[in-house]
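Hello everyone,

My group is preparing for a crystallization screen and wants a predicted model to guide construct design. The compound we'll soak is zinc ion. Before spending weeks at the bench, it would help to have a computed complex in hand. I've included the protein sequence and the ligand's SMILES below. Output in structure-token form would be ideal because that's what our pipeline reads.
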Amino acid sequence: MWSTRIGAMQVQRVEEMLTPGFLPSFLFPDYDPAVLVEHPELAAPEFFHAATGRLMSSMQTWLLRTGDQVVIVDTGCGNDKIRTNEAFSRFHQLQLPYLERLAACGVRPEDVTMVINTHLHVDHVGWNTRLSDGKWVPTFPNARYLFGRHELEHWRDPEGGPRLHPWGIPVIIDSVDPVIEAGLVDLIDDGDTILPGVSVRAVPGHTAGQLAICLASEGASGIFTADVFHQPMQIARPDWNSCFCEVPTAAINTRKRLLADAADTGAVLFPSHTGAPHAGRVARAGAGFRFLPLDLER
Ligand SMILES: [Zn+2]
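Reply:
Good plan to model first. Here are the tokens for the complex, ready for your pipeline.
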């Protein structure tokens, strides 16, 4: 089982799926295959599926235990969701044993005390809800769901998320609105401390209101980095945005700043979609950085 510690806090990874995902030339408009020559470790099968030329893509949630809190950071794609956009066919009407995998970590849906959505994209909010008698209902009925205030406003503004990414509209309807209607949502902002040692950092760019979640415990630190980068290729090439980044200049600035901070502090980075071992530290290397995959507890 995937598990590590940040001081007194435990972080586990609960997999939804791990498959070849996008072609790098699609995901990164500035893609240059020379990156694989310069950083041969990025061509390892954990990150690059040579048979199809696609990037390995993890869909997962992070399970954080701190004190008596059971926290889920991002909720993957979800089961039964209708996703007709061609780019997201991988997420269409899934039937995956995610809740069974959560149970294998000793967590039932009713045990979860907090859900944090770093941003409101299709692959980060899916298990917020599940289908019950034809209706979308909160999967975690006893949890408070935390959304970024700015991110939610961005999706409430017809000229914001809905105009930039119309494919996100059904996602808001089936995975965001039902938990708001159930009265389970609290809004969070940059700089908030949401639990002892757990704080919020604005990381705008991929979405206008994207948030990272920072951990500090017993001198150790970690960051749930949302989609500041999707792939370790962007650690080597921090000026490469994904084709889904909404505010390109901000996305690059945010990525460079977060990677520089992590290189300086030794924080463990917990990204959303990186191949095994799915987390690691970074070190400076030339104009960019180098990914240092994490050694896991076994
Ligand atoms: Zn994502």
